[in-house]
Write a structure and sequence with these properties.
Blueprint: H1 5-17, H2 20-27, H3 31-45, E1 50-52, E2 57-59, H4 61-89, E3 90-95, H5 97-114, E4 119-124, E5 135-141, E6 150-161, E7 173-179, H6 191-197, E8 204-210, H7 213-223, E9 226-230, H8 231-240, E10 243-245, E11 251-259, H9 268-282
Parallel strand pairs: 3-4, 3-5, 7-8, 7-9
Antiparallel strand pairs: 1-2, 5-11, 6-9, 6-10, 6-11
């Protein structure tokens, strides 16, 4: 049997508050409208739900039975809505360990200052499973991604601690840390092309590899060495004055950061996060 949802809501409110007038105030409608809804509901069910007197109303036995059911039902709906609203504010991000550590986490407070009602949960790892509830920020090849999914096309250059930069031209041999990706389907980092671009093919260089850019950056600090890595991951260190970018020409790469099927992830809070993130990683 189909009954009107507004009628059920009017009944539930009147039964809980013991007054048509109080129900009308709670629902922002007139007492006449409450009475009309309940009358229609009684006609539809062919029962009497309230005993009406000049001063008050009281539930019949059938009215009490329906009151318990409607109160439980609307409470279940309200609880579900509250849970959904909380989940909407929860932004689940999955990305590489390097991007999480060097870009997202240091800048999160800035995001919270702008959107204090949001909460960002970051899952890091090199293998990211597809999930409609998780925003996947990945590093991949530009040619294999949809243009609408790309959030940053990557460039590479040489970086080091500030005091090490002056030694670059004088040193007979230098050590460069760079990346040999865990994902062997990705292209190699463009180190050889960068050396040729900058006329450094004949310079004595010892190249050492890690499987994540994060480790190469950290090790270059410890050894006063150099790291050849993406410009995106060094932005925070450059701003803090911890790293400096050498006066060499950056090289475009085959890599980009992208969000797979980005348009399918554009809930209200995800949209705000993506908008903030694109501005963050594209400012120089």
């Amino acid at each position: 049997m189909q009954v009107s949802l507004p009628a059920l809501k009017a009944f539930e409110s009147a039964a809980r508050l013991g007054s048509f007038k109080a129900a009308a105030a709670e629902l922002s409608i007139s007492p006449t409208a409450v009475s009309h809804h309940i009358n229609k509901l009684e006609q539809r069910l062919d029962v009497t739900l309230f005993v009406r007197t000049a001063r008050n109303v009281a539930l019949t036995e059938l009215g009490k039975e329906l009151s318990v059911a409607t109160s439980q039902g609307f409470q279940t709906i309200e609880t579900a809505i509250e849970k959904i609203a909380v989940k909407e504010k929860q932004i689940n991000v999955a990305t590489t360990s390097s991007f999480a550590a060097l870009v997202l986490i240091p800048a999160l407070q800035e995001f919270y200052n702008k959107y204090p009602e949001s909460n960002v949960n970051i899952i890091s790892g090199e293998s990211i499973e597809a999930n409609k509830f998780i925003l996947p920020i990945r590093l991949g090849e530009i040619d294999k991604q949809s243009s609408v999914d790309v959030i940053k096309i990557e460039q590479f250059n040489l970086f080091c601690a500030t005091h090490t930069a002056t030694q670059f031209n004088q040193a007979e041999q230098i050590t460069i840390y760079t990346t040999d990706w865990k994902n062997n389907t990705l292209p190699k980092v463009p180190l050889k092309a960068w050396l040729q671009l900058n006329g450094l093919k004949n310079k004595k260089i010892k190249v050492r590899y890690f499987d994540q850019e994060l480790f190469g950056i950290q090790q270059s600090f410890l050894e006063n060495a150099y790291v050849f890595c993406s410009r995106t991951l060094t932005q925070g260190y450059l701003k803090a004055g911890v790293l400096t970018e050498l006066n060499t020409e950056a090289i475009n790469s085959e890599f980009c950061y992208y969000i797979e099927n980005k348009e399918k992830h554009l809930s209200r809070h995800n949209f705000m996060f993506i908008e903030w993130l694109e501005k963050l990683i594209n400012e120089r």
